[in-house]
Design brief:
Length: 505
Protein backbone atom coordinates (compact mmCIF):
# COMPACT_ATOMS: atom_id res chain seq x y z
CA UNK A 1 0.00 0.00 0.00
CA UNK A 2 1.22 3.52 -0.82
CA UNK A 3 0.41 6.94 0.62
CA UNK A 4 -0.57 9.99 -1.41
CA UNK A 5 2.22 12.04 0.16
CA UNK A 6 4.80 9.76 -1.48
CA UNK A 7 3.27 9.38 -4.95
CA UNK A 8 6.29 11.04 -6.57
CA UNK A 9 8.36 7.98 -5.61
CA UNK A 10 6.09 5.79 -7.71
CA UNK A 11 5.90 7.70 -10.97
CA UNK A 12 4.99 5.34 -13.79
CA UNK A 13 4.28 2.47 -11.38
CA UNK A 14 1.10 0.87 -10.16
CA UNK A 15 0.19 1.59 -6.51
CA UNK A 16 -2.56 0.64 -4.10
CA UNK A 17 -4.24 3.50 -2.18
CA UNK A 18 -6.74 3.33 0.65
CA UNK A 19 -8.81 6.34 1.53
CA UNK A 20 -12.01 8.29 1.13
CA UNK A 21 -13.88 9.93 -1.70
CA UNK A 22 -13.51 13.61 -0.86
CA UNK A 23 -15.24 14.90 -3.96
CA UNK A 24 -15.98 13.77 -7.49
CA UNK A 25 -17.44 14.79 -10.80
CA UNK A 26 -18.32 12.42 -13.57
CA UNK A 27 -19.36 12.06 -17.17
CA UNK A 28 -20.67 9.08 -19.12
CA UNK A 29 -17.39 7.21 -19.31
CA UNK A 30 -15.10 8.85 -16.79
CA UNK A 31 -15.14 9.75 -13.07
CA UNK A 32 -12.69 12.24 -11.59
CA UNK A 33 -12.43 11.53 -7.90
CA UNK A 34 -10.43 13.54 -5.38
CA UNK A 35 -9.27 10.87 -2.99
CA UNK A 36 -7.85 11.65 0.42
CA UNK A 37 -5.96 9.18 2.52
CA UNK A 38 -4.88 11.25 5.52
CA UNK A 39 -1.51 12.13 4.03
CA UNK A 40 -2.93 14.21 1.21
CA UNK A 41 -5.38 14.65 -1.63
CA UNK A 42 -4.98 13.41 -5.17
CA UNK A 43 -7.03 13.13 -8.33
CA UNK A 44 -7.97 9.60 -9.36
CA UNK A 45 -9.20 9.08 -12.90
CA UNK A 46 -11.66 6.21 -13.20
CA UNK A 47 -12.21 5.34 -16.83
CA UNK A 48 -14.99 2.95 -17.82
CA UNK A 49 -12.75 1.25 -20.36
CA UNK A 50 -10.02 0.65 -17.77
CA UNK A 51 -12.03 -0.60 -14.78
CA UNK A 52 -15.02 -2.29 -16.41
CA UNK A 53 -18.72 -1.62 -16.04
CA UNK A 54 -19.27 -2.89 -12.47
CA UNK A 55 -16.48 -0.90 -10.84
CA UNK A 56 -17.28 2.14 -12.94
CA UNK A 57 -20.94 2.12 -11.89
CA UNK A 58 -19.91 1.64 -8.24
CA UNK A 59 -17.54 4.61 -8.48
CA UNK A 60 -20.16 6.74 -10.18
CA UNK A 61 -22.73 6.06 -7.45
CA UNK A 62 -20.22 6.33 -4.60
CA UNK A 63 -21.37 8.99 -2.10
CA UNK A 64 -18.98 11.59 -0.73
CA UNK A 65 -16.79 10.30 2.15
CA UNK A 66 -17.30 6.64 1.31
CA UNK A 67 -14.13 4.64 1.93
CA UNK A 68 -12.43 2.61 -0.77
CA UNK A 69 -9.22 1.04 -1.89
CA UNK A 70 -7.98 1.27 -5.45
CA UNK A 71 -5.10 0.34 -7.66
CA UNK A 72 -3.78 2.55 -10.40
CA UNK A 73 -0.84 3.98 -12.27
CA UNK A 74 0.89 7.14 -11.00
CA UNK A 75 1.17 9.70 -13.78
CA UNK A 76 2.84 13.10 -13.65
CA UNK A 77 0.42 15.97 -14.19
CA UNK A 78 1.62 19.46 -13.32
CA UNK A 79 -1.93 20.81 -13.10
CA UNK A 80 -2.85 18.48 -10.25
CA UNK A 81 -2.33 19.09 -6.57
CA UNK A 82 0.92 17.40 -5.64
CA UNK A 83 1.85 17.17 -9.33
CA UNK A 84 0.49 13.64 -9.93
CA UNK A 85 -2.74 11.81 -10.69
CA UNK A 86 -3.67 8.17 -10.45
CA UNK A 87 -5.14 6.37 -13.45
CA UNK A 88 -7.24 3.73 -11.79
CA UNK A 89 -7.20 0.11 -12.97
CA UNK A 90 -9.37 -1.44 -10.27
CA UNK A 91 -11.23 -0.34 -7.17
CA UNK A 92 -13.05 -1.79 -4.22
CA UNK A 93 -15.57 0.00 -2.02
CA UNK A 94 -14.95 -0.50 1.72
CA UNK A 95 -17.96 1.33 3.18
CA UNK A 96 -20.66 3.33 1.45
CA UNK A 97 -21.26 6.56 3.35
CA UNK A 98 -24.66 7.99 4.25
CA UNK A 99 -25.53 11.44 2.93
CA UNK A 100 -22.58 13.54 4.11
CA UNK A 101 -23.59 16.80 5.79
CA UNK A 102 -20.58 18.86 4.65
CA UNK A 103 -20.89 19.37 0.92
CA UNK A 104 -18.67 21.48 -1.37
CA UNK A 105 -21.10 24.41 -1.04
CA UNK A 106 -20.62 27.10 1.61
CA UNK A 107 -21.70 26.31 5.17
CA UNK A 108 -22.23 28.58 8.19
CA UNK A 109 -19.58 28.40 10.87
CA UNK A 110 -21.96 27.19 13.61
CA UNK A 111 -22.99 24.29 11.42
CA UNK A 112 -19.36 23.45 10.76
CA UNK A 113 -18.49 23.68 14.45
CA UNK A 114 -21.38 21.33 15.31
CA UNK A 115 -19.87 18.92 12.81
CA UNK A 116 -16.29 19.48 13.91
CA UNK A 117 -15.69 15.69 14.06
CA UNK A 118 -16.34 15.60 10.30
CA UNK A 119 -15.16 19.09 9.38
CA UNK A 120 -11.62 17.99 10.34
CA UNK A 121 -11.58 16.02 7.05
CA UNK A 122 -11.96 19.13 4.87
CA UNK A 123 -8.87 20.24 3.03
CA UNK A 124 -8.28 23.51 4.90
CA UNK A 125 -8.83 21.94 8.30
CA UNK A 126 -6.56 19.08 7.33
CA UNK A 127 -3.86 21.58 6.35
CA UNK A 128 -4.21 23.55 9.61
CA UNK A 129 -3.78 20.40 11.70
CA UNK A 130 -0.68 19.46 9.70
CA UNK A 131 0.80 22.93 10.33
CA UNK A 132 -0.07 22.62 14.03
CA UNK A 133 1.81 19.33 14.09
CA UNK A 134 4.89 20.91 12.50
CA UNK A 135 4.74 23.80 14.96
CA UNK A 136 4.64 21.37 17.91
CA UNK A 137 7.55 19.42 16.51
CA UNK A 138 9.59 22.61 15.93
CA UNK A 139 8.88 23.77 19.49
CA UNK A 140 10.20 20.53 20.98
CA UNK A 141 13.16 20.59 18.59
CA UNK A 142 14.16 24.10 19.65
CA UNK A 143 14.10 23.39 23.36
CA UNK A 144 15.62 19.93 23.14
CA UNK A 145 18.46 21.30 21.01
CA UNK A 146 19.11 24.01 23.59
CA UNK A 147 19.36 21.66 26.55
CA UNK A 148 15.91 22.26 28.08
CA UNK A 149 14.22 19.42 29.97
CA UNK A 150 10.53 18.94 29.23
CA UNK A 151 8.41 18.74 32.40
CA UNK A 152 4.74 18.04 32.95
CA UNK A 153 3.02 20.40 35.36
CA UNK A 154 -0.12 19.25 37.20
CA UNK A 155 -3.58 20.06 35.85
CA UNK A 156 -5.32 19.94 39.24
CA UNK A 157 -3.96 22.85 41.23
CA UNK A 158 -4.59 24.30 44.66
CA UNK A 159 -3.72 27.87 43.73
CA UNK A 160 -4.27 30.51 41.07
CA UNK A 161 -1.36 31.66 38.94
CA UNK A 162 -2.79 34.31 36.66
CA UNK A 163 -5.42 35.79 39.00
CA UNK A 164 -8.68 34.37 40.29
CA UNK A 165 -11.14 35.74 37.75
CA UNK A 166 -10.64 33.00 35.15
CA UNK A 167 -10.41 29.90 37.37
CA UNK A 168 -12.35 26.73 36.62
CA UNK A 169 -13.23 25.19 39.97
CA UNK A 170 -13.64 21.48 40.34
CA UNK A 171 -14.16 19.00 43.15
CA UNK A 172 -11.05 17.20 44.38
CA UNK A 173 -12.22 14.56 46.90
CA UNK A 174 -14.46 17.08 48.56
CA UNK A 175 -12.02 19.99 48.43
CA UNK A 176 -12.00 22.72 45.80
CA UNK A 177 -9.29 22.42 43.17
CA UNK A 178 -8.68 24.49 40.06
CA UNK A 179 -7.81 23.50 36.54
CA UNK A 180 -4.37 24.92 35.84
CA UNK A 181 -4.21 28.37 34.23
CA UNK A 182 -0.47 28.04 33.76
CA UNK A 183 2.28 25.61 34.73
CA UNK A 184 4.68 28.43 35.53
CA UNK A 185 4.91 28.18 39.31
CA UNK A 186 5.68 24.45 39.03
CA UNK A 187 8.08 25.24 36.21
CA UNK A 188 9.94 27.60 38.55
CA UNK A 189 10.31 24.77 41.08
CA UNK A 190 11.60 22.43 38.38
CA UNK A 191 14.03 25.05 37.02
CA UNK A 192 15.65 25.08 40.46
CA UNK A 193 16.15 21.33 40.02
CA UNK A 194 17.03 21.16 36.31
CA UNK A 195 18.22 24.63 35.28
CA UNK A 196 16.40 24.95 31.96
CA UNK A 197 12.94 23.44 31.61
CA UNK A 198 9.80 23.81 29.53
CA UNK A 199 6.25 22.65 30.05
CA UNK A 200 3.96 21.71 27.19
CA UNK A 201 0.46 21.10 28.38
CA UNK A 202 -3.19 22.07 28.44
CA UNK A 203 -4.22 25.13 30.43
CA UNK A 204 -7.66 26.41 31.28
CA UNK A 205 -9.21 29.84 31.57
CA UNK A 206 -12.84 30.61 32.18
CA UNK A 207 -13.29 33.39 29.62
CA UNK A 208 -16.94 34.31 29.72
CA UNK A 209 -16.96 35.93 26.33
CA UNK A 210 -16.58 34.85 22.76
CA UNK A 211 -13.58 36.40 21.09
CA UNK A 212 -11.45 35.35 18.17
CA UNK A 213 -8.39 35.03 20.42
CA UNK A 214 -9.66 33.19 23.50
CA UNK A 215 -10.29 29.54 24.25
CA UNK A 216 -11.31 27.99 27.57
CA UNK A 217 -8.82 25.18 27.04
CA UNK A 218 -5.58 25.90 25.23
CA UNK A 219 -2.05 24.52 25.08
CA UNK A 220 0.77 26.49 26.53
CA UNK A 221 4.52 26.09 26.27
CA UNK A 222 6.30 27.56 29.27
CA UNK A 223 10.08 27.57 29.49
CA UNK A 224 11.68 28.63 32.76
CA UNK A 225 15.37 29.45 33.04
CA UNK A 226 17.48 29.67 36.20
CA UNK A 227 19.98 32.57 36.25
CA UNK A 228 18.21 34.44 33.40
CA UNK A 229 17.10 38.07 33.52
CA UNK A 230 14.55 39.92 31.40
CA UNK A 231 17.02 40.73 28.61
CA UNK A 232 18.09 37.08 28.31
CA UNK A 233 14.45 36.05 28.41
CA UNK A 234 13.66 38.33 25.45
CA UNK A 235 16.61 36.90 23.55
CA UNK A 236 15.21 33.39 24.01
CA UNK A 237 11.71 34.48 22.95
CA UNK A 238 13.10 36.03 19.79
CA UNK A 239 15.34 33.07 18.84
CA UNK A 240 12.57 30.63 19.64
CA UNK A 241 9.83 32.32 17.62
CA UNK A 242 12.22 32.91 14.72
CA UNK A 243 13.20 29.22 14.72
CA UNK A 244 9.63 27.92 14.88
CA UNK A 245 8.21 30.26 12.25
CA UNK A 246 11.05 29.81 9.74
CA UNK A 247 11.09 26.03 10.21
CA UNK A 248 7.35 25.79 9.63
CA UNK A 249 7.50 28.13 6.62
CA UNK A 250 9.91 25.69 5.06
CA UNK A 251 8.33 22.40 6.09
CA UNK A 252 4.68 23.34 5.63
CA UNK A 253 4.87 25.10 2.27
CA UNK A 254 2.22 22.89 0.66
CA UNK A 255 -0.22 23.32 3.56
CA UNK A 256 0.27 27.09 3.70
CA UNK A 257 -0.42 27.17 -0.03
CA UNK A 258 -3.70 25.30 0.48
CA UNK A 259 -4.57 27.95 3.07
CA UNK A 260 -3.60 30.66 0.56
CA UNK A 261 -1.41 32.19 3.25
CA UNK A 262 0.48 35.29 2.16
CA UNK A 263 3.72 34.78 4.09
CA UNK A 264 5.19 38.27 3.65
CA UNK A 265 4.75 39.27 7.29
CA UNK A 266 5.82 35.86 8.57
CA UNK A 267 9.10 36.21 6.69
CA UNK A 268 9.77 39.36 8.74
CA UNK A 269 10.67 37.19 11.74
CA UNK A 270 14.10 36.86 10.14
CA UNK A 271 14.78 40.52 11.00
CA UNK A 272 15.48 41.64 14.58
CA UNK A 273 12.25 42.06 16.55
CA UNK A 274 11.25 45.50 17.74
CA UNK A 275 11.76 45.92 21.49
CA UNK A 276 10.22 48.82 23.33
CA UNK A 277 9.16 49.81 26.81
CA UNK A 278 5.48 50.04 27.62
CA UNK A 279 5.62 53.85 27.98
CA UNK A 280 7.17 54.23 24.52
CA UNK A 281 4.62 51.82 23.05
CA UNK A 282 1.87 53.97 24.56
CA UNK A 283 3.37 57.05 22.88
CA UNK A 284 3.22 55.23 19.55
CA UNK A 285 -0.34 53.98 20.06
CA UNK A 286 -1.65 57.40 21.07
CA UNK A 287 0.00 59.04 18.07
CA UNK A 288 2.42 61.04 20.23
CA UNK A 289 5.46 59.50 18.61
CA UNK A 290 6.20 59.03 14.90
CA UNK A 291 7.48 55.79 13.44
CA UNK A 292 8.87 55.98 9.91
CA UNK A 293 7.70 59.57 9.58
CA UNK A 294 4.05 59.09 10.56
CA UNK A 295 1.91 58.82 13.65
CA UNK A 296 -0.52 55.99 14.35
CA UNK A 297 -3.42 58.31 13.58
CA UNK A 298 -1.93 59.25 10.20
CA UNK A 299 -1.23 55.59 9.50
CA UNK A 300 -4.86 54.62 10.22
CA UNK A 301 -6.27 57.52 8.19
CA UNK A 302 -3.97 56.54 5.33
CA UNK A 303 -5.13 52.96 5.51
CA UNK A 304 -8.74 54.09 5.49
CA UNK A 305 -8.14 56.05 2.28
CA UNK A 306 -6.36 53.11 0.64
CA UNK A 307 -9.22 50.78 1.51
CA UNK A 308 -11.76 53.24 0.13
CA UNK A 309 -9.84 53.52 -3.14
CA UNK A 310 -9.58 49.73 -3.37
CA UNK A 311 -13.31 49.47 -2.76
CA UNK A 312 -14.13 52.05 -5.45
CA UNK A 313 -11.96 50.14 -7.95
CA UNK A 314 -13.79 46.90 -7.22
CA UNK A 315 -17.18 48.58 -7.52
CA UNK A 316 -16.24 50.00 -10.93
CA UNK A 317 -15.20 46.58 -12.16
CA UNK A 318 -18.45 45.07 -10.92
CA UNK A 319 -20.42 47.77 -12.79
CA UNK A 320 -18.46 47.16 -15.98
CA UNK A 321 -19.06 43.44 -15.89
CA UNK A 322 -22.73 43.89 -15.07
CA UNK A 323 -23.06 46.26 -18.03
CA UNK A 324 -21.45 43.66 -20.31
CA UNK A 325 -23.94 41.04 -19.19
CA UNK A 326 -26.84 43.48 -19.60
CA UNK A 327 -25.73 44.34 -23.14
CA UNK A 328 -27.05 40.96 -24.34
CA UNK A 329 -24.01 40.48 -26.57
CA UNK A 330 -22.29 37.78 -24.53
CA UNK A 331 -22.41 34.02 -25.05
CA UNK A 332 -23.68 31.85 -22.24
CA UNK A 333 -20.18 30.80 -21.17
CA UNK A 334 -19.02 34.42 -21.07
CA UNK A 335 -22.03 35.41 -18.98
CA UNK A 336 -21.28 32.67 -16.46
CA UNK A 337 -17.64 33.68 -16.35
CA UNK A 338 -18.52 37.33 -15.70
CA UNK A 339 -21.15 36.41 -13.14
CA UNK A 340 -18.75 34.30 -11.11
CA UNK A 341 -16.17 37.13 -11.27
CA UNK A 342 -18.83 39.54 -10.03
CA UNK A 343 -19.68 37.23 -7.12
CA UNK A 344 -16.01 37.03 -6.18
CA UNK A 345 -15.58 40.80 -6.40
CA UNK A 346 -18.65 41.34 -4.25
CA UNK A 347 -17.10 39.13 -1.57
CA UNK A 348 -13.93 41.18 -1.74
CA UNK A 349 -16.00 44.34 -1.30
CA UNK A 350 -17.58 42.80 1.78
CA UNK A 351 -14.15 42.05 3.24
CA UNK A 352 -13.01 45.61 2.60
CA UNK A 353 -16.16 46.99 4.18
CA UNK A 354 -15.50 44.94 7.29
CA UNK A 355 -11.95 46.26 7.46
CA UNK A 356 -13.27 49.78 6.97
CA UNK A 357 -15.59 49.33 9.93
CA UNK A 358 -12.61 48.51 12.15
CA UNK A 359 -10.65 51.64 11.44
CA UNK A 360 -12.80 54.12 13.37
CA UNK A 361 -12.78 51.68 16.29
CA UNK A 362 -8.98 51.54 16.24
CA UNK A 363 -8.68 55.29 15.82
CA UNK A 364 -10.95 55.85 18.75
CA UNK A 365 -9.16 53.46 21.07
CA UNK A 366 -5.76 54.84 20.01
CA UNK A 367 -6.82 58.41 20.76
CA UNK A 368 -8.47 57.51 24.06
CA UNK A 369 -5.96 54.99 25.38
CA UNK A 370 -5.43 55.57 29.10
CA UNK A 371 -1.77 55.47 30.04
CA UNK A 372 -1.31 52.78 32.70
CA UNK A 373 -3.94 50.45 31.28
CA UNK A 374 -3.28 47.01 29.87
CA UNK A 375 -3.42 46.75 26.08
CA UNK A 376 -6.60 45.55 24.45
CA UNK A 377 -6.77 43.84 21.06
CA UNK A 378 -7.16 47.18 19.24
CA UNK A 379 -4.12 48.69 20.93
CA UNK A 380 -2.01 45.68 19.99
CA UNK A 381 -3.24 45.89 16.41
CA UNK A 382 -2.45 49.61 16.09
CA UNK A 383 1.02 49.18 17.59
CA UNK A 384 2.03 46.24 15.40
CA UNK A 385 0.58 47.92 12.29
CA UNK A 386 3.16 50.64 12.81
CA UNK A 387 5.98 48.14 12.39
CA UNK A 388 4.55 45.20 10.40
CA UNK A 389 6.73 42.78 12.33
CA UNK A 390 6.82 41.22 15.81
CA UNK A 391 7.05 43.72 18.65
CA UNK A 392 8.18 42.98 22.19
CA UNK A 393 6.77 45.36 24.78
CA UNK A 394 8.49 45.26 28.17
CA UNK A 395 8.48 47.06 31.52
CA UNK A 396 4.76 47.14 32.17
CA UNK A 397 2.96 49.00 34.97
CA UNK A 398 2.98 46.58 37.87
CA UNK A 399 -0.75 46.89 38.51
CA UNK A 400 -1.71 45.26 35.21
CA UNK A 401 0.60 42.27 35.61
CA UNK A 402 0.59 39.09 37.73
CA UNK A 403 1.83 38.92 41.33
CA UNK A 404 5.06 37.07 40.54
CA UNK A 405 6.56 39.73 38.22
CA UNK A 406 9.77 41.36 39.42
CA UNK A 407 9.77 45.10 39.89
CA UNK A 408 12.49 46.92 37.92
CA UNK A 409 14.67 48.51 40.61
CA UNK A 410 15.78 51.23 38.20
CA UNK A 411 12.26 51.92 36.96
CA UNK A 412 10.03 51.89 40.04
CA UNK A 413 6.42 50.89 39.55
CA UNK A 414 7.23 48.88 36.44
CA UNK A 415 7.37 45.10 36.23
CA UNK A 416 10.01 43.26 34.24
CA UNK A 417 7.39 41.57 32.12
CA UNK A 418 7.33 41.24 28.35
CA UNK A 419 4.62 40.54 25.78
CA UNK A 420 5.41 39.51 22.24
CA UNK A 421 2.84 40.93 19.82
CA UNK A 422 2.42 39.36 16.41
CA UNK A 423 1.62 41.58 13.41
CA UNK A 424 -1.48 41.41 11.17
CA UNK A 425 -3.81 41.88 14.12
CA UNK A 426 -2.86 38.65 15.91
CA UNK A 427 -1.60 40.45 18.99
CA UNK A 428 -0.16 38.82 22.10
CA UNK A 429 1.23 35.36 21.44
CA UNK A 430 3.78 35.26 24.26
CA UNK A 431 3.71 36.66 27.79
CA UNK A 432 6.56 36.32 30.25
CA UNK A 433 9.25 38.04 32.25
CA UNK A 434 11.68 37.96 35.15
CA UNK A 435 10.35 36.61 38.43
CA UNK A 436 10.27 38.41 41.77
CA UNK A 437 12.95 36.98 44.05
CA UNK A 438 12.35 39.15 47.14
CA UNK A 439 10.26 37.00 49.45
CA UNK A 440 8.81 39.93 51.40
CA UNK A 441 7.68 41.67 48.22
CA UNK A 442 6.18 38.43 46.97
CA UNK A 443 4.22 38.01 50.19
CA UNK A 444 2.79 41.49 50.01
CA UNK A 445 1.88 40.99 46.34
CA UNK A 446 0.05 37.76 47.23
CA UNK A 447 -1.95 39.69 49.82
CA UNK A 448 -2.54 42.60 47.42
CA UNK A 449 -3.87 40.20 44.77
CA UNK A 450 -6.14 38.64 47.39
CA UNK A 451 -4.62 35.17 47.01
CA UNK A 452 -4.57 32.64 49.89
CA UNK A 453 -1.06 32.61 51.42
CA UNK A 454 -1.31 28.98 52.54
CA UNK A 455 -1.55 27.74 48.95
CA UNK A 456 1.71 29.55 48.11
CA UNK A 457 3.92 28.37 50.99
CA UNK A 458 5.63 25.83 48.75
CA UNK A 459 6.26 28.51 46.11
CA UNK A 460 7.81 30.83 48.70
CA UNK A 461 10.18 28.00 49.70
CA UNK A 462 11.86 28.45 46.31
CA UNK A 463 13.03 31.89 47.56
CA UNK A 464 14.33 30.42 50.84
CA UNK A 465 16.56 27.68 49.50
CA UNK A 466 19.15 28.91 47.03
CA UNK A 467 17.20 31.85 45.67
CA UNK A 468 18.39 32.86 42.17
CA UNK A 469 17.29 35.29 39.49
CA UNK A 470 15.18 33.48 36.93
CA UNK A 471 12.83 34.19 34.04
CA UNK A 472 10.52 32.50 31.60
CA UNK A 473 7.55 32.93 29.34
CA UNK A 474 4.40 31.28 28.03
CA UNK A 475 3.53 30.78 24.38
CA UNK A 476 -0.11 30.19 23.51
CA UNK A 477 0.08 27.42 20.93
CA UNK A 478 -3.27 28.19 19.30
CA UNK A 479 -2.44 31.90 18.93
CA UNK A 480 0.73 30.91 17.09
CA UNK A 481 -1.14 28.44 14.87
CA UNK A 482 -3.70 31.15 14.04
CA UNK A 483 -0.98 33.63 13.09
CA UNK A 484 1.10 31.22 11.02
CA UNK A 485 -1.96 29.89 9.19
CA UNK A 486 -3.50 33.36 8.85
CA UNK A 487 -6.81 32.34 10.44
CA UNK A 488 -9.55 34.80 11.32
CA UNK A 489 -10.53 32.87 14.44
CA UNK A 490 -8.75 30.73 17.02
CA UNK A 491 -11.46 28.04 16.96
CA UNK A 492 -9.95 26.40 13.86
CA UNK A 493 -6.49 26.00 15.40
CA UNK A 494 -7.28 23.09 17.74
CA UNK A 495 -8.99 19.79 16.89
CA UNK A 496 -11.89 20.15 19.33
CA UNK A 497 -12.10 23.71 20.62
CA UNK A 498 -13.53 24.46 24.03
CA UNK A 499 -14.84 27.96 24.50
CA UNK A 500 -17.74 29.80 26.13
CA UNK A 501 -20.84 27.92 24.95
CA UNK A 502 -18.97 25.11 23.18
CA UNK A 503 -18.43 21.70 24.82
CA UNK A 504 -19.54 19.42 21.94
CA UNK A 505 -18.50 17.57 19.87
O1 LIG B 1 0.13 36.02 29.30
P1 LIG B 1 -0.29 34.78 30.01
O2 LIG B 1 -1.49 34.84 30.86
O3 LIG B 1 1.00 34.33 30.83
C1 LIG B 1 1.08 33.27 31.67
O4 LIG B 1 0.24 32.43 31.86
C2 LIG B 1 2.45 33.14 32.29
N1 LIG B 1 2.32 32.29 33.47
C3 LIG B 1 3.41 32.58 31.28
C4 LIG B 1 4.80 32.43 31.82
O5 LIG B 1 5.48 33.42 32.01
N2 LIG B 1 5.23 31.22 32.06
O6 LIG B 1 -0.50 33.62 28.93
C5 LIG B 1 0.54 33.25 28.08
C6 LIG B 1 0.02 33.11 26.67
C7 LIG B 1 -0.57 34.38 26.09
O7 LIG B 1 0.44 35.22 25.58
C8 LIG B 1 -1.46 33.83 25.00
O8 LIG B 1 -0.70 33.52 23.86
C9 LIG B 1 -1.95 32.54 25.60
O9 LIG B 1 -1.04 32.18 26.62
N3 LIG B 1 -3.30 32.67 26.16
C10 LIG B 1 -4.41 32.18 25.58
N4 LIG B 1 -4.59 31.52 24.42
C11 LIG B 1 -5.84 31.15 24.10
N5 LIG B 1 -6.92 31.39 24.87
C12 LIG B 1 -6.79 32.04 26.05
N6 LIG B 1 -7.87 32.25 26.82
C13 LIG B 1 -5.47 32.48 26.44
N7 LIG B 1 -4.99 33.12 27.52
C14 LIG B 1 -3.66 33.24 27.32
MG1 LIG C 1 -0.49 37.93 28.96
Amino acid sequence: MAYIKELSKFEGQEVELKGWNAQKRDSKTIVFMTMRDGTGFTQCVIDLAAVGENSFEAAKRLPQESSLSLKGKVVKDERQMGGYEVQVTSLQVIAVAEAYPITPKEHGVDFLMDNRHLWLRSKNQWAIMRVRNEIIFAIHTFFQQHGFVQMDAPIFTGNACEGTSTLFETDFYGDPAYLSQSGQLYGEAMAMAQGLIYTFGPTFRAEKSKTRRHLSEFWMIEPEMAFYDLKMDMDVIEDFIRFVVTTVLEKSKAELQILERDTTYLEKVREPFIRMKYEDAVDVIKGEKEIGGRTSLQMLEGEEKELQIAKATLLTEIQEREAKIASGELKKGEINFNQSKIDKLKNEVKDLEEKLLNIPVWLNSAKNFKRGDDFGGSDETVLTKMFGQPVMVYNWPQEVKAFYMKEDETDKGYAKGVDLLAPEGYGEVVGGGERETDIERLKSKIIEHDLPMSAFEWYLDLRKFGNVPHAGFGLGLERLVAWICGLQHIRETIPFPRSYGRLLP
